[in-house]
Amino acid sequence: MLLIDCPWCGPRSEHEFRCGGESHIARPGPPENVADGEWADYLFYRTNPKGEHLERWLHRFGCGRWFNIARNTVDHRITAIYGMTDPKPEPRA
Amino acid sequence: MTRYSAWSLLRAGLSGQKNWAPAWRDASPKAGYDAVVIGGGGHGLATAYYLARVHGLRNVALLERGWIGGGNTGRNTTVIRSNYFFPESTRFYDFALGLYEGLSSELNYNIMFSRRGMWMLAHDRHGVEMLRRSANAMLRNGAAVEMHDGEEVRRRIPGLNPDPRFPVIAGLLQPRGGTARHDAVAWGYARGADALGVDIIQNCEVLGFDIAGGRVRGVKTSRGDIACDRIGMAVAGHSSVMAQLAGFRLPITSYALQAFVSEPMKPVLDTIVLAPATGVYVSQSDKGELVFGGALDLFPSYAQRGSLPALEQAVAGLIDMFPQFSRVRMLRQWAGIVDVVHDSTPILGESPVDGLYLNCGWGTGGFKAIPAGGYCLAHQIATGTPHPLAAAFSLDRFRTGALIDEAAASGIAH
Question: Where is the Rhodanese domain (chain B) (predicted)?
């Protein structure tokens, strides 16, 4: 069970949240210059690391706001919580 | 290889069960092979077996990081069905089902395939419409299916809650669906492949690839380097990790899918039941245990444990279907790491690296596809061209947009 420290509401149980997948994926553009392969990469391809993952979460049954977390996908340890537009945190080993 | 028969059983019984030979050799890696398969789960073992049996390749190695069948093959809930929507999927899964039906005699290994039928329930008018649509698609694709009203469903499945939170107003039965002993599928394929000369190498982790000029030349493992220019990978939830070693990405996200087993009981349930409202499905094993599962833990994970909310939801869903099971004690809970793609259709065929072939993207339903997945990957490795059954499952579909969207079409829960 994850205990997620919402930047606005404080620590709450995993039940209240929804994971929105990998963060920091930028939409390519302008559209007329984007090849099919780039669209595929943007829409479908994911890093899916075994280790630290930067991902978006939504406090669905709380404040309803999105934020980013850095979480290890093996032991689920959360090492950073930061805003949607903040830069990536320093990667940890 | 000693053939198993009533006679061999009797003879071994009379000599105190002392003369059984190991079912496969514990092989050590050689310096090179004609073909290498990475991943000793069902798909990898089946690939190795069909490479030897159908394509006559005998100089083949199968590499497994742990022990064979220790990943998702030993962690799934053993359901075999082919109730999909699109013709490509139905053809493929029906082919797998056909191979499963003859597998025990082909492998001379009892995989305990039990054709007990699988029910999918509908809880409201929209659910019924979905089932009708699904039934029509299956009939049109040549898969046998029956549609029954709620009363008939309750008559056919004794013990089903007469007054559940989500009422049962119709059910769709695929009579050819069933279960099989998952370990036996892995062990049977391993024994069959080994008898044909395949080296099954356990405790051998792949650490990297030797790639030159966009072509694979070999594989680096924890037990030494192996030269080989035809490599198939069937590593399910770890596909992205393996792809990263080869220098590319995949359209895959890995999630934990939990399964649960109860204490053994007398026979109470002679079929498989799936309730879409809760995503919970349950069957009873030959040993008498209830085997059930539910939805994914919906955040990326490589932890083979699973978390509490999904567990709670699965148990609540089971008790809603069968309230009497609330007094049954659970023995074990675990998770397998599944490789989910956006359209819930597998990826079979070429990768961006020449000579390295993919078998992944099974999501929550890889077990039922094992014979076909292995058969088609073996065809791809041996001939360099996709098997007609798997031609539509190429990685390239994410670029061309020719997705086979079973995620939406057959109501797969993720």
Answer: 36-79
